[in-house]
Amino acid sequence: MAVGNIIKSIQDIMRQDTGVDGDAQRISQLVWMIFLKIFDDKEQEYQLLDDKYVSPIPERLRWRAWAANPEGITGEGLLDFINNDLFKTLKGLSFGPGDDARGFIVKEVFEDAYNYMKSGTLIRQVANKISEVDFNIASEKHLFGDIYEQILRDLQSAGNAGEYYTPRAVTQFMTDMVNPRLGEKILDPACGTGGFLVCTLENIRRNEVKTVEDHAILQESIFGFEKKPLPHLLCVTNMLLHGIEVPSTIRRDNTLSRPLRDYTAKDRVDVILTNPPFGGIEEDGIQANFPAAFRTKETADLFLILIMTLLKDGGRGAIVLPDGTLFGEGVKTRIKERLLEECNLHTIVRLPNGVFSPYTGIKTNLLFFTKGERTKEVWYYEHPYPPGYKSYSKTKPIRIEEFEPEKAWWNNREESEFAWYVSVEAIKAANYNLDIKNPNKNDEDHGDPEELLAKYKKLLAEVAETREALKQELMSALERDQT
Questions:
Q1: Domain harbouring 124, CATH code
Q2: Between 230 and 159, whose confidence is greater?
Q3: pLDDT class for 445, splitting at 50, 70, 90?
Q4: Would the pLDDT of 454 be above 90?
Q5: Residues of the domain holding 227
Q6: 132, pLDDT greater than 80
Q7: Is residue 320 one of the residues assigned to a domain?
Q8: d(CA 308, CA 316)
Q9: 417 neighbors 441 (Cβ within 8 angstroms)
Q10: Taking CA 343 as the corner, what is the angle to CA 341 and CA 347, rounded to the nearest 5 degrees?
Q11: Does 88 have pLDDT greater than 50?
Q12: Between the CA of residue 90 and those of 87, 240, 305, 316, 459, what are the distances in Å?
């Protein structure tokens, strides 16, 4: 089954609907419908394993009851059902402490979801397309990965929604190097659509999950926060499909909105992997949650402070940060000073332009550190473009295979054309500037300055001569026209 054809068919159907305005609404509409389909498919598994399983969704609202039958309710009747029963009921679900936590997830997902479509007939057509996929079949379960990647590509062209996307190669490399282990508490405080959490789940399952007990431990190990509803919905759906049966630890919240002093030992984690929004500006009230010396409106800087607070001693962190954090001064200097004092910032991988194309051209860096030990030296690795590349793009994204040299170098570090290290004393002497250029890379030789100047003067003379010739030719043509 070609995922491109499924997505294209659904998009073509939605474009006929007058209520759906633009890519962002189309994606939002598609995602809540896919969530209900996947939730229903997972419930089929739960019922096979537990005869007493009771769905937290009222029977009439389950996907199987209204959407799975191609000849089922349609037109005005379906539209009325969705707007005045499905959404109102799921948004208003109420549960007690002993109730199935899956119900809390459904309620949270639908609190900020909306039905944008105005044609019940077209909604029926979309539901029929989605119902063609059985997410309990292994081959079609993997199909969601393809659908997910397609949705992310669409997000990139849906305005600033593209901020949710981190290239899979980057998330995979960072996860591989940090190497989360079974039994560790793993957090992404700005989880977006869940890329780092999915990579973590896949790595741990592949390497360590052997028993039912291991599976149960993994269920309790993954934590994420996302403040925007669409990526949160995508993340919850992703977790369901990747075997997290009750993804109640994926919360829709802004982790920066909690005062730093309120975090206690029970909030601390073993591993943090994240790509926080950068270039963002936080409101004044958010700054008040941080110590006076570290108050800033820059989102990425606040997340770096938060991560240092949330890591246990011995905990490992990896974060994507822009160049501006590396060379910035003022509050940024104080944040970097704290980072080097409280953590061992052992590695910075410098990425080239275009990794996050097309929605930002800002150069980015991958910082890896361990909490609880001071930095003595920082190793840098400058990631080169593949041969023949001058930049990355949507059609030529960064690939995981390109990180093989970094992986081979990681545990056997030596200086090279791409790798170098700087002592912490040198960094302190430079006022904590981490924007250290590669000393082992020869600057491109542009030639002798005097020769270049002579060529430039010759070129200017040729341009002047050509301009004068064109002027004379134009004057002659005008004179001929007048006669």
A1: 1.20.1260.30
A2: 230
A3: very low
A4: no
A5: 159-429
A6: yes
A7: yes
A8: 10
A9: yes
A10: 115
A11: yes
A12: 5, 18, 37, 39, 72
